[in-house]
Design goal:
globular; mainly beta; four-stranded parallel sheet; 97 residues; four-stranded mixed sheet; 1 helix; 9% helix
Length: 97
């Protein structure tokens, strides 16, 4: 399993994109992050976890205007220590509190 540490929205998507088909990749989120474009996890096998130095959960915040994650039916994702906040729900057309 390859492990990549990320601290920005762009780095996060690049780590997802670089995960080869048929493999499992681990992504460590090193701090709170504003999500400005939807993370596309379609068809990927990922382990996503917080890697903050103080041991607390990392926060992904869409600030009420961005869908945080798109995950297709062929994705397998394990998420640990990540808080989702302010994501825009496409199906509900309203922001999460």
């Amino acid at each position: 399993m390859t492990t990549t540490s990320v601290s920005t929205n762009g780095e996060f998507q690049t780590a997802i994109d670089n995960c080869a088909s048929g493999t499992t990749c681990e992504i460590e989120v090193t701090g709170n992050m504003v999500i400005t474009s939807t993370l596309n996890i379609d068809g990927k096998n990922l382990v996503i976890k917080s890697a903050k130095s103080d041991g607390s959960n990392a926060e992904l915040d869409g600030q009420g205007s961005t869908q945080l994650v798109y995950m297709g039916s062929t994705s397998t994702v394990s998420i640990t220590g990540i808080d989702f906040k302010g994501g825009y729900s496409v199906s509900m057309t309203s922001a999460m509190p």
